[in-house]
User: What shape does this take?
Amino acid sequence: MNSKRELSKLITKIENFEELDSEILKKIFEKEGRAHRIGFTGPPGVGKSTLTDKIASLFVDENKAIGILAVDPTSPFTGGAILGDRIRMEESSKKGVFIRSLGSRGGIGGLSRRTYLSTLSMEAFGMDYIIIETVGVGQVDLEIKFVADTTIVVLTPESGDYIQAMKAGLMEIGDIYVVNKCDRPGAEEIKREIEFVLSFFPNSDWNKKVLLSNGLKGEGIQELKREIINHKNYLEITKKKEQIVKERRKRFLIDFLRDEVWDQIELLLVENGLIEKFLADIEFGKSLDEIRKDFYKFLKKGLNSL
Assistant: This one.
């Protein structure tokens, strides 16, 4: 497995929910753990694509094989996606980095429903580092923590009030925090504010740092790369990388089966006209508790017939 064209075809199959041959599935799973996954998340417009581009370029200069997955929002009306992040990754593109845009396609937490399998494919094709850029939807953009090894939360000097609202969200999932566009007023202040917020969370043996950067000017990129390597080494030395891989696989299987079951349930409801029936029952005075019991009775019969 070494052709970028073959990799692209495989990810297309994954993205289109096509069935994968068992041998292919075995091959991509047995390679997991060799590559290091880096996740960039944060609100829209903070410069995630630029930082992704710069970091990827630095690793390429060290003769590392790099793959980038840029997740873009999918329209709930047309199913299409604006796949624009790769356009902003000019430096990486020129250096031959494999860049793939994925539509979120109903995925939650800022990722596509097929992000994990796509990263496995990239790893099987020999990538040393896989960089995942989330949609950028703010406080709920948290799923990256369960796919990446190193999660980087990107904010800007304008993020002041926003940080307070994210205490139970993005401020908990990061391994590294970056205040990008640090040439704007208030960068040092927001850095201190993030450090203050982080001080309220339980300590671990990993010291979370807050860095300043200016992606467009290339400032702070070397420091960010160095911190990524430090975190990578930390995970390997403490054997936490092994635990991350195990938990990631469990979560994938649970999510996969949940999605499959829900798809079947939805199909059964539609084919049997139960949506309309249950709505009519509510209009005639049935309680939601009664609707739930009727649904469970139907579900038990329906799933037994599958």
